[in-house]
Amino acid sequence: MKKRYLLLEDGSIYTGESFGSEKDSIGELVFSTGMSGYQQSISDQSYNGEILMFTYPLIGNYGVNGEDLESANPTCKGVVVSEIARKTDNWRMNMTLSDYLVKNDIPGISGLDTRAITKHIRECGAMKAAILNEITADSLEELKTTELSHNRIPESATKQTMKLTKNGRRIVVIDFGLKNSILRELGKRNCDVVVLPPNTTFSEIDEYHPDGVMLTNGPGDPMDVAPETLEMVREVENKYPLFGICMGNQLFALANGATTSKMKFGHRGFNHPVRNLANGRIDFTSQNHGYTVNRESVKGTPLKVILEEINDGTVEGLQHTELPAFSAQFHPDAAPGPHDTDYLFDTFMQMIDDNELDWNKEDKEHA
Questions:
Q1: Is 331 a catalytic residue?
Q2: What is the DSSP letter of 224?
Q3: For the segment 211-241, what is each residue's pLDDT rounded down to a tens digit?
């Protein structure tokens, strides 16, 4: 197989073999600790602009199918694996992982010690990297001087209204780069769903007379969103029940006066334990984020921390103390990952019906 190189911003060079698209690519190198679910991860718009490295040693063994994709057009900048499966077989697959990357013009590199590189990132922090077919004297300087795009939401989110018509509660979903699994969870609850672009105004949301509003996941730095978006969130939460996921959690925090910051290497994978501070419940969660809500900044706002990551104590969920509005930093929709926290969608439904958030009621129902 053809040689290919992974070049890190600190000058580290790793030599591997090429698969997927043959183009060169630059992005932020991040790692996922999941053992499966690679096609859901690659098609997750939250990885827009990032080179995704898997710590699990063998990737691609069950191919790619059309049903489990989280978006139609993946936007990650590359895929790094220890070993790409030489033989692929699954009754649901319709192409190999390499063919899928070729189709979507995403380069891949295999044959690297991804766990050693992950340890390096954990120590030094996430950094820019390049997947290259050739290393030249100028490669490192070109990498260092390349500016990565910050606000990737417009590229990842829908630009037009989408409707999934059913007979239940009407939920307006503001798309910042949503995963299809969020829509599937709402569909399971018979919700009448309207998906709107990220630049939607409150008045446009109001025209649909929703029972509740959701803010989805999405890529990039939450501080890069337009001030008008935060104003929309404030107007929505004052009239409608609100539920934010991932990027939605961070925008909910910013709209209410808290702050966010970039993490050293983020949370990506689906083995992150989260504690519910209201009832003591502990769940394993699916996560994909490189930014976090600063815990100290929540003090003095109308919000309170309701969920926390057990390993590092980071904020994993917020609740408004006066309004029916809450959020989760992780993905209760999973895909991939455990479904421990899909009850949060039921909590949202109950909040809509009661116009209040009662964690004690939830705790009794799921005890």
A1: yes
A2: G
A3: 999 999 999 999 999 999 999 999 999 999 9
